[in-house]
Amino acid sequence: MKMNRMNSKNLLLGLMLTGGAFFAQAQNTQTDTAAAATNTTAAVQQTPAGSGIDDLKKKIEANPKDMESMAKLATAYQDASDWTNAIDTWKKISAILPDWAPSYYSQAYAYQSAKDDANAKIAYEKYIATVKPGEVEQNKKNLAYAYFYLAFTEQQSNKDKAKEHIAKSLQYDPSNQDALKLSKALNS
What we know:
Helix content is 59%, strand content 14%. With 188 residues, the protein is α+β, with helices and mostly antiparallel strands. The protein has a two-stranded antiparallel sheet. A hairpin with a 2-residue loop joins strand 1 and strand 2 (20-31). The protein starts with a strand and ends with a helix.
């Protein structure tokens, strides 16, 4: 199965929080077997990983509701392949913003990268459930991958459910070659 390449520069969502607007990063997937790491925001890229992480931690310590810095910190942890801290940071964001779907997608990606398939599956399911109808269009690639992942994980244990998931995946991205191959295997 191909890993996702997260591109955190592609999509910024404006979030309204207690009288101020904060921006957090959504992530857009592209399948790419060569790259499992994410691209960071410009602020994180300009500093070495360690000092960028330390600076972001200080900013969050000063303002625990600074969602922009939290998302940058989670992304920096992902860039450093520090999956435990990436997951913990995305979970903190989800606790503060339980209706913000990209945090669940990012958790799933981090769990998947950490080889924790059970929790990745749960996080992808939460992501799918959290995407609002008005956000479906901008999340088609992520939804397609989330459904593909669910189908892939359930192909042995629940073939009927896997078929449902792969059909949804192809509904969102009919050109995904991995999904087409899995659909063919499931339906043969």
